[in-house]
Amino acid sequence: MGMNRDEDPQLWDLLGQSKRPLPSPFFSRNVVRVVRNQSGKGQRLLAWFSLRRLVPALSAAAAVAIAAFTFQLLHHQDRSSQRGFASAEIQDAELVADLDVLVNDDDSDDTLLL
Fold it and tell me: In terms of C-beta density within 10 A (0-12 exposed, 13-18 middle, 19 or more buried), how is residue 109 classed?
């Protein structure tokens, strides 16, 4: 589907007189720069997942998780020990006396059960 010279001779004469575009002396450098900039966008995300960044990030996350778990465990133990003291104060004095009697009873010899 190219044009023939016979179809429009004035146009071809005008095109023959026009200046031909000259490529820039820095054309190849500019093309390479654009390609690098476009490919760099995808590699920035992958560069974040490199080992030199991933190892410290995972180490910091593990340290925070261990600290949170330890704090929660110690905090839970403190509360459970406080509940024991509180429940001992609330208990009935007769029940405590009955338990002391059972613990100190010398007649119950468990060796016969073995």
Answer: exposed
Nearest to 51 by CA among 62, 41, 59, 61: 59
Question: 69 is written with which tokens?
Answer: 């778990």
The residue type at 19? K
Q: How far is CA 93 from CA 34, 88, 90, 101, in A?
A: 87, 10, 9, 13
Q: Determine if the pTM surpasses 0.70.
A: no
Check: CB of residue 12 under 8 Å from CB of residue 5. yes
Could you report the per-residue pLDDT of 17-74, keeping only the tens digit for each? 888 788 888 999 999 998 888 876 666 667 667 778 888 899 999 999 999 999 988 8
The identity of residue 22, as a single letter, is L
**61 vs 55: CA distance, rounded Å:** 10
